[in-house]
Each structure stands twice: as structure tokens, then as C-alpha cells.
Amino acid sequence: MNFNEKVYNLCKKIPKGKITSYKEIAHALNTKAYRAVGQALNKNPYSYVPCHRVIGNNGNLVGFASGLKNKTKLLKKEGIQIKNNQVMNFEKLIYRFRKDL
User: Fold this and answer.
1) Which residue in 51, 55, 75, 87 is the catalytic one?
2) Deepest in the core among 13, 46, 54, 87, taking most CB within 10 A?
3) Active site includes 11?
4) Checking phi first, is residue 44 left (phi over 0); if not, alpha (psi -120 to 50) or beta?
5) β-strands 20-21, 54-55: how paired?
6) How far is CA 11 from CA 39, 53, 83, 84, in A?
């Protein structure tokens, strides 16, 4: 399985109403290639992969192929509160991947 597919598989594990970061996905893949994770998600060909749930490590909304307005809309639809392009209660909502992947 190539890097992008690994990223998509991890992304599918993020529950509705939770978020994770590019850094968390990279960490789960035993790499520091955060930007490569972002590039993979930018090229996501699957509508069922919830890449809108991936945000910056500081809680900021960053990068989304169809725009940050759309990312905000999708996250709010899942009950995630956003203010000034930042996820409120970031630490309570972050999904961390188990290490036994």
C-alpha cells in the first residue's frame, strides 16, 4: 500500500465529531512528513474519506481542496465549534491513533 492510501485509511478512522491533525497522522505512520500528509489529503479521490476532519496541530483550519469555508461548514455540521478559523476545545476533540496499527 502506498503512502497516500495509508493516509486515507487512517483518515477513515476519525470518528464523526472528532478532528485530528496532519502531525497525528504522520506520527501514526512513523514519519515527520506532515506536508506529505497534507499533499495526500489534497489529492484525496474518495468522497468517503473525511479529510475535512484533519486540521493544523494548533487547532487552526488549514488546507482543504474545496476551500476553508466548505471545511468549516462540514465540521460545524458534525457539531464542531469553530471561531476565527480555529476549532474550539481542540484538546477534547482530537482523535489520536492507536499505536498498534
Assistant:
1) 51
2) 54
3) no
4) beta
5) parallel
6) 13, 8, 23, 24
Report pLDDT digits (tens) over 79-95: 999 999 999 999 999 99
CB atoms within 10 A of CB 44: 18
Greatest CA span in the chain, whole angstroms?
Answer: 37
Considering the entire predicted model, what is its pTM? 0.90
CA nearest 50: which of 99, 76, 16? 16
Whole-Å CA distances, 47 to 43, 50, 66: 11, 7, 12
Q: What is the pLDDT of residues 33-78, one digit of tens each?
A: 999 999 999 999 999 999 999 999 899 998 888 888 999 999 999 9
